[in-house]
Amino acid sequence: MRYQPPNPIAGTSNRPRTAPPPAAYSRDERHLLLRLAHDAIESLVLQRSPVSHHADSHLAEYRGVFTTLYRQGKLRGCVGYVSPIFPLHRAVFETARAAASQDTRFIPVTSDELQELLVSLSILSPLHPIDPSEVEIGKHGLVVTLGIRRGLLLPQVPVEHGWSRQEFLEQTCRKAGLVTDAWKSGAVLEAFTAEVFGDAGGAA
Prior knowledge:
With 204 residues, the protein is α+β, with helices and mostly antiparallel strands. It has helices at 27-45, 88-101, 156-161, 165-175, and strands at residues 9-10, 64-71, 74-81, 117-124, 128-129, 141-146, 149-153, 188-192, 194-198. The chain has a five-stranded antiparallel β-sheet with strand order 1-3-2-4-9, with helices on one face. A hairpin with a 2-residue loop joins strand 2 and strand 3 (74-81). The longest helix has 19 residues, at 27-45. The radius of gyration is 16 Å and the shape is globular.
């Protein structure tokens, strides 16, 4: 995974299978953010002006976020910001468009797919340093940094794959293009949590 702030970066699928923490965002706020993501994609694909959405001060807080797209139960794109470089409502708009058009693993979303497209949002907590022994599977996402290389895996990824803590650390290093034991030899290890929600019938 390339990390090039402030540009969005490609992520992995989000399929939470552990009990989530208390929700920071109300049902109405979640609905608004999901509608904003869909409108961002539709206005891009259909080449029309986006609808104006009112965002309150809570949704104007600066947060990192990943937008994940699914179609017919399969990943269709995932791009996000790790760092809180934009207000949340703008970050959702930008990452939704990027997930639909800039994830190099997929061709851009077409108009024929819009009705089947499901959105999942992962709103990230701030990054914080963490000791490897404190990493909790299903709770923490990880970022490993060494020099110009940086790799990220969302909290749900090790749960999906059945990884141990050590495997999670190693795979995050691999994502950064580093040797798998870089977390023990000079790389900076940071963690975050994520509040994940999405369209009914989607992955979240």
